Amino acid sequence: MDMRLDKYLADMNMGSRSDLKKQIRRGSVTVNGETVKDPAVQVVPSDCVTYAGRMVSYTVFEYYMMNKPAGVLTATEDRHQRTVLDLMGKEVRRDLFPVGRLDKDTEGLLLITNDGQLAHRLLSPGKHVAKQYFAEIDLPVTEEDIRRFAEGVVIGRGPDSGRDIVTLPAELEYCGKTDTGSSVLITIYEGKFHEIKKMFEAVGKQVLFLKRLSMGPLRLDPDLAPGAFRPLTEAEIMDIGASSVPQIPKNV
């Protein structure tokens, strides 16, 4: 995986490409022990690169788990509202993105990475990756609701075809009563827009609270506070079938 020296350093959040080019030309960077003043020099992740005397190890892919809070957009950037990447601050690399989306008012597990192949596998409709949510509903959930969810629910009509939009079978488990209705666990195997909310609307109920607990084998760390994030562990990275070996800490 060859890349320009300035890109290598920018990917590791050492600065902007324009500033790094200036620093490279001033002799602030070495590659394998030799000072390099050309920003376009090709390097590979295994090279030994230092910037201002500090070693900068390159990580091809990075993987983070976030406990997304309500009120934050699942997006890389937005001019008017705070996004999940804003929560991560300026110390993380700039090519990260959230895998899939959670509605603004939905909380819970969010995978953030720069591994496009992994994201495609987890989001591909044909893969039917299980996603489990905890939800609070405004009314009691019945056995009839459980049966209908298991068969697939009509949640609308296609704007072009005029055909019914039917969800894949989902697993609905009653957890107990709440002050306003009931709590449930629901597992879906696709990710249609507002799918869970529309499924409950189809059976005459409203979702009051929604939190994602898992995505495939990846489960939300109960120790993560809303808005907090952490790198995935080696075991978690292997479990989700990531494209790279576990990430290497940057020595900066």
Would you kindly provide a brief summary of this structure?
The chain is α+β, with helices and mostly antiparallel strands and 252 residues long. It has helices spanning 5-11, 17-25, 84-88, 116-123, 143-151, 195-202, 234-239, and strands at 3-4, 29-31, 34-35, 42-43, 49-51, 54-55, 63-68, 97-98, 107-113, 131-137, 154-157, 164-166, 171-177, 182-188, 207-215, 218-219, 229-231.
Q: How would you portray this structure in words?
A:
The protein has 252 residues and is an alpha+beta fold. It folds into 2 domains: 3-55, Structural Genomics Hypothetical 15.5 Kd Protein In mrcA-pckA Intergenic Region, Chain A; 63-234, Pseudouridine synthase, CATH 3.30.2350.10. It has 7 helices and 17 strands. The chain has helices at residues 5-11, 17-25, 84-88, 116-123, 143-151, 195-202, 234-239; strands at residues 3-4, 29-31, 34-35, 42-43, 49-51, 54-55, 63-68, 97-98, 107-113, 131-137, 154-157, 164-166, 171-177, 182-188, 207-215, 218-219, 229-231. The strands form 4 sheets. Strands 7, 8, 9, 10, 13, 14, 15, 16 and 17 form a 9-stranded mixed beta sheet that branches. The protein has a 4-stranded antiparallel beta sheet with strand order 3-2-5-6. The protein has a two-stranded antiparallel ribbon with strand order 1-4. Helix 1 crosses helix 2. The protein is elongated, with a radius of gyration of 22 Å. The two termini are 22 Å apart. Residues 245-252 have low confidence and may be disordered.
